[in-house]
Structure to design on (405 residues):
């Protein structure tokens, strides 16, 4: 814990440090419970006592390159650049978006020990970031999401997307200061490794799950699904790379899963929007990029089946259009057909990383071992959700393959 309670330069965090960070006197603080550790960050809740006697619970998150000596350099660089993205989001964009009504988890203090390009190993190993965030009391997390919970998370997306819709000045700034394109799965971020690997991994997937849907897996188009997806990947990535001036462009979260949202308690109907966290992959894109990933990563397959996907897509579309009209936008050009085109492309773009990374060694036993891990996507921890996803990918490719589309 003492290692965690240090700033980005390794100096011990004190009451004076909290006082400067919060611009109010702090006379006492203590870490609450055990620290959490992930493969790129660590953090803990901190109870602070202000000089006026008021107690507050905050969340301290740290990312320190030197603490991951065994991680491959390219992976560590990607992690650190994504955390730099979040630091820049909070310091340069969050206040404006909050004023526009976007439900963002508050950040009270950001520290960065960073290098512009992280072009060499020394720059990467010595980079560090610290985030002092609200602890979001009164909210909770869960995955998979039931229908009302999905309503809440989609409401938050509609607000984010509408608040930044076709704002060329804001989006130009985001393009320059954040990632070139939103999405942790973006080909610009990951290269084309998954394009090659999906063809390698797909036969194992077919072998593992063909008894769950034997007729579908026996179809030639299913056997060739990974090859079909691979052949379209570059085109799809290009079609989902809008500029700041592109029609329908907006700011996209880029990693919109259940565990990057906090749901408000005492809201069984999903009327209030979820609170957004984790902006490591936020930048410019099309709104359906968030929606497509979110539905299949985090929403219960029982909600998605039997027309449930279209129902949620229409709900998002209607909420988005309502938000846009309220903010003075003309929505005539953003038709349902345009929205669905973006959705299908977004499914295929997200599928590239699912097929080309997360389907490696896919098996029923492997899925079962991850079944209770809420941060893991449903297409690679739930058999029925996975089958629903791959069949959706097939449907989306079929539309893309139509002559004269």
């Amino acid at each position: 814990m003492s290692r965690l309670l240090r700033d980005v330069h390794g100096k011990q965090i004190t009451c004076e440090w909290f006082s400067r960070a919060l611009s109010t006197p702090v006379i006492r603080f203590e870490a609450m419970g055990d620290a959490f550790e992930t493969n790129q960050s660590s953090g803990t809740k901190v109870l602070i006592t202000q000089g006026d006697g008021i107690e507050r619970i905050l969340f301290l998150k740290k990312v320190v390159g030197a603490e991951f000596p065994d991680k491959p350099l390219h992976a560590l660089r990607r992690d650190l650049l994504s955390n730099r993205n979040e630091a820049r989001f909070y310091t340069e964009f969050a206040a404006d978006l909050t004023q526009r009504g976007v439900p963002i988890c508050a950040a009270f203090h950001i520290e960065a020990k960073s290098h512009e390009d992280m072009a060499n190993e020394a720059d990467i190993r010595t980079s560090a970031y610290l985030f002092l965030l609200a602890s979001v009391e009164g909210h909770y997390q869960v995955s998979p999401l039931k229908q009302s919970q999905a309503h809440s998370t989609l409401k938050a997306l509609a607000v984010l997307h509408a608040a930044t819709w076709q704002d060329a000045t804001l989006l130009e700034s985001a393009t320059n200061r954040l990632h070139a394109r939103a999405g942790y799965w973006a080909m610009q971020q990951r290269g084309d490794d998954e394009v090659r690997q999906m063809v390698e991994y797909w036969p194992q997937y077919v072998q593992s799950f063909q008894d769950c849907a034997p007729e579908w897996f026996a179809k030639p188009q299913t056997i060739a699904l990974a090859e079909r997806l691979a052949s379209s990947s570059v085109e799809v990535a290009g079609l989902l790379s809008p500029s700041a001036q592109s029609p329908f462009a907006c700011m996209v979260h880029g990693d919109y899963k259940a565990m990057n949202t906090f749901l408000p308690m005492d809201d069984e109907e999903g009327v209030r929007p979820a609170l957004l966290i984790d902006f490591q992959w936020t930048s410019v894109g099309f709104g359906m990029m968030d929606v497509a990933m979110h539905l299949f990563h985090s929403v219960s397959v029982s909600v998605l089946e039997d027309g449930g996907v279209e129902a949620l897509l229409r709900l998002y579309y209607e909420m988005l259009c309502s938000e846009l009209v309220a903010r003075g936008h003309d929505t005539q050009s953003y038709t349902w057909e345009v929205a669905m085109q973006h959705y299908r492309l977004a499914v295929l773009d997200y599928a590239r990383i699912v097929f080309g990374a997360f389907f490696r060694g896919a098996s029923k036993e492997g899925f079962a071992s991850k079944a209770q891990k809420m941060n893991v996507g449903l297409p690679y921890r739930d058999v029925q959700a996975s089958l629903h996803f791959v069949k959706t990918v097939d449907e989306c490719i079929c539309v893309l393959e139509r002559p004269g589309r």
Notes: Residues 336-358 form the longest helix (23 residues).
